[in-house]
Design brief:
It contains 7 helices and no strands. It is an all-alpha fold. 3% of the residues are buried.
Length: 94
């Protein structure tokens, strides 16, 4: 089984933060030779990453919202009036 599949499997199956952290550490040892820089980054943020096991939520929705707002700002080439910008942002999500 590939490292990617192993990671996907334990991310879906494990229920506790402690179990997730232990499995992640095992996986990181195996993945070091293939994903060197990524493994280093994951180790630096392991506690935060393992918070996923507490509530099973990600920040994907918020990232999508931020991306949409940045796109509106780019398309407008800067708003002259804050109220117009606010209206455009609110209209985007209705």
């Amino acid at each position: 089984m590939s490292l990617k599949r192993i990671l996907e499997k334990f991310m879906k199956q494990l229920k506790t933060q402690r179990d997730g952290k232990n499995k992640f550490k095992e996986w990181l040892c195996k993945a070091q030779s293939i994903y060197g820089d990524a493994v280093k980054t994951i180790r630096n943020h392991l506690n935060t990453i393992c918070n996923y096991f507490l509530s099973r939520t990600t920040n994907g929705v918020m990232e999508g919202i931020n991306n949409r707002l940045k796109l509106i700002k780019r398309q407008a080439y800067g708003f002259i009036n804050f109220e117009n910008m606010r209206i455009r942002f609110l209209y985007c999500f209705t």
